[in-house]
Amino acid sequence: MTKLIVVVGATGKQGGSVARTFLALPGWRVRAVTRKTDSPAALALTEAGAEVVQADLGDADLTALKAAFAGANAIFVNTDFWETYRPAAAALMAAGKDAAPAGRQAFDYETGCRKHAADAAAASALPTLERFVLSSLTSLVGGSLDPSKFTRTFHPEAKNWGVDYIEQHVSALAPKLSVIVPAAYNTNRLMVPTKTGSDDATYTFLSPILPQTHIATIDPETGVGPFVRCLVEDEPAGTKLLAYDSNQTMAEIVAIFHRVTGKPATFAPVTTHQLVATMGGSWEVLQVVDYLNEHDTYEHGEPGYIKPSQLKAPPVRPSFEAWAKTYDWGGAI
């Protein structure tokens, strides 16, 4: 008998990775949930063997979502903060206004989506459901000894809100919840240098990440799926995972770039306040850096979360350096 995993956000990087991973596993079938079933990514999933259905997490009418979840043995949910934040922030900035209100707007929309997913799963999938895997982030406010230091960002709080909502308000679903917190994507702009001067000039990492701070990385398109498989097939419900392919300091990333490309590279420290004040940076991104610098999260861990090495059968993943050898740096710098 085959099992069914329902993947919300299946046409995105994380959801696509989960869908492809389970399509390749014996004993599983995949139902991909998307807003646009005729998009190229959705059509590719259909061609690969997935059942593609239409539903919108932003729709308060949960009829389509309940139907999508019916009969599921596992559900994976990811939601997109930036889809709402970026256009709202751009409109505010174009009007000469502070972009901060866009964070609250994106928070309200994303938490609504996460609530809808949890409520629909609790209403239609419980008889068969074994695991509800939520892609999330850890709370900056909840993880700090001084919460007042981290109140200018809504992104991680929106993600973590979904975990809290299920654990505190959806009692029937909570025992089936597991959480994955993907690390920084390998292509994160904070880890890509800029070229200065002539063609032979040194490349500079202008970064607020301290050289000794560990920046765990993941290739989301190939990495998230294998980690979700661990949470669904190997680990008990309730497992919370910091998911990453490799873990290295910012100084090591600079050295890796030099080894892989042969280009000279230097590190130029800059504070998050400088980036916001003079370079158009956003606290929605940069306050996370302050938290990482203070906690060195991936080196010391987060309370209640395990690392990949603690999984029963950790997937074999390429290091950041191995990935960097295959990456088109010429198109990125």
From TrEMBL:
<dbReference type="Pfam" id="PF05368">
    <property type="entry name" value="NmrA"/>
</dbReference>
<dbReference type="InterPro" id="IPR051164">
    <property type="entry name" value="NmrA-like_oxidored"/>
</dbReference>
<protein>
    <recommendedName>
        <fullName>NmrA-like domain-containing protein</fullName>
    </recommendedName>
</protein>
<comment type="similarity">
    <text>Belongs to the NmrA-type oxidoreductase family.</text>
</comment>
<feature type="domain" description="NmrA-like">
    <location>
        <begin position="1"/>
        <end position="300"/>
    </location>
</feature>
<keyword id="KW-0521">NADP</keyword>
<dbReference type="InterPro" id="IPR008030">
    <property type="entry name" value="NmrA-like"/>
</dbReference>
<dbReference type="InterPro" id="IPR036291">
    <property type="entry name" value="NAD(P)-bd_dom_sf"/>
</dbReference>
